[in-house]
Amino acid sequence: MKISEVFASIQGEGILAGVPSLFIRTSGCNLRCRWCDTPYTSWAPEGEEWAINRIMEWVEGNRGYRHVVLTGGEPMIQPELPVLARRLGDAGFHITVETAGTVYVELVCHLMSISPKLANSTPWEMEGGRRAEAHEKLRINGEVLRRLVSKYDYQLKFVVGEPGDVEEIRQVIQMCGGAPERVLLMPEGRTAEVLRKRAGWLVELCKQHGYRYCPRMHVEIYGDRRGV
Ligand code: SF4
After folding, report:
1. Domain coordinates of the chain in residue numbers?
2. Distance in Å, CA 25 to ligand 1 centroid
3. Could you tell me if the CB of 101 is within 6 A of ligand 1?
4. What are phi and psi of 192, to 5 degrees?
5. Is the CB of 29 within 6 Å of ligand 1?
6. Is CATH 3.20.20.30 correct for 2-222?
7. pLDDT of residue 146
8. Tens of pLDDT, residues 81-138
9. What pTM did the predictor assign?
């Protein structure tokens, strides 16, 4: 499958934040978020083909790690993902899949980390808006979200740009039957300064609605860098 990067780090977001983890980042995405923080997997996908055996060799060469994160791009559009997940599961790894929740796939997964994309992601102003309509049609798929939430142990992570986004978040949660305590809100932003500015009102929203506030530790620790 096409891989843009592999690296060892700590999980920066979500209920497993802080856990040392191996990241396998697939290249290619069916969406085009305006604020995508990995454009090298979506707007201009980079990478090379890795055989499953090569990925497993890399994973098993990193001794001491028990958690693997399959991320992207959109890993669920990779035809070989279920095979890789089964190999990782058989080898005893805890598997997190990071997905936007637009495609349903059955695979070995211990945490389905679903990040539905809100209206704030639609790239109306980018490249003359040529990707905006397709993105808008695809970004929320109620049937897929319901199946993911009912089949897998899950978390629902939302990137929030402004307080008004909370109404759309409420609608998406209602649509897919997600539990408020599995919902994490994280500020949009690619620098620690922007994240800090948005944290104040976002924490208040979490308190009002019973959602979790989700820091983005990797941005705070490393800044906006690849492979960390
Ligand atoms: S779904 Fe993720 S990888 Fe794809 S464009 Fe949006 S932020 Fe980027």
Report:
1. 2-222
2. 12
3. no
4. -60, -35
5. yes
6. no
7. 98
8. 999 999 999 999 999 999 999 999 999 999 999 999 999 999 999 999 999 999 999 9
9. 0.94
